[in-house]
Specification:
The chain has about 260 residues and is α/β, with parallel strands linked by helices. The chain has 2 domains: about 200 residues, Rossmann fold (3-Layer(aba) Sandwich); about 40 residues, no CATH class. The chain is about 35% helix and about 20% strand. The protein is built from 7 helices and 9 strands; from the N terminus they run E-E-H-E-H-E-H-H-E-E-H-E-H-E-E-H. The strands form 2 sheets. A 7-stranded mixed sheet has the order 5-4-3-6-7-9-8, with helices on both faces. A two-stranded antiparallel sheet has the order 1-2. Helix 5 runs parallel beside helix 6. The chain starts with 10 loop residues before the first strand and ends in a 10-residue tail after the last helix. The N terminus is likely disordered.
Length: about 260
Amino acid sequence: MNTEHSVEDELSMVGNIPFIKNPLSFFASTKNFRSFLSITDSDDILNDVQIAEKMFATLFISSAQPEMDTKLQVVRNVLKQRLRYPDINDQPDLLKFAKIWILPSKIHLTNPPSAFLSSFKDSIKTSQTEYNFDTLSCVKFELKDGAERMMIYKMIDDGFRPSLVIVKWSKDLDEDYATAYCAGHLVNSGYVLVDSKNGYSLYFYSNFCLYDTVSMKEICYGNPFVNSFHEETEELLKCLKVRKIENDAADTTSPLEPSST
């Protein structure tokens, strides 16, 4: 994502979720395989399927809903039969899926959310096949009672850095300390909050991990990040001061010698 341009120019909405406007260009380097993992407590997967369509991605849904397997099978049938699906016009919720262009075979049900607390990578499995890969293009967390926090910590701990992370925080970031700490860890690990609408926060991986800028073994009084910023700011001010002195000296011309007559 080019941060020199206006962020708003590069964003759009998928349903009620903020997303990037041109995912095909954004994920151009991963054109062979794009993956979208949705870890959710919700039984509404319309936005997930719409995002997968926009990304041209394989969709993995992790849900604790007991009826999710049945619902996914219905959605696959609608995607396959479209307007030929029985009584589709009398079912407005299913009619929305009939207008989405994604292969039914690209929608999978993985292990439930609790499995991801043991191993993020090994939990991405399906009944049809097992995907063994080390990267994820996009991950969405939509859980209840703060459960998304442990999932995010585990994702970071297991070395996953999806290009995009969507989080529907179950508690207010400015009122719940545990949620704020988790969001802070996500940002310190290299993510930038680029949009927040309808309760959903969209994060972009910038590849700038704040933890890499300091040593946690160095003894210091105060926060090591703050100390590092102070030191770098002082060095910058010194450089600017020296540069100003040099420029002032270069602009100063010596007085003309009086000409001899």
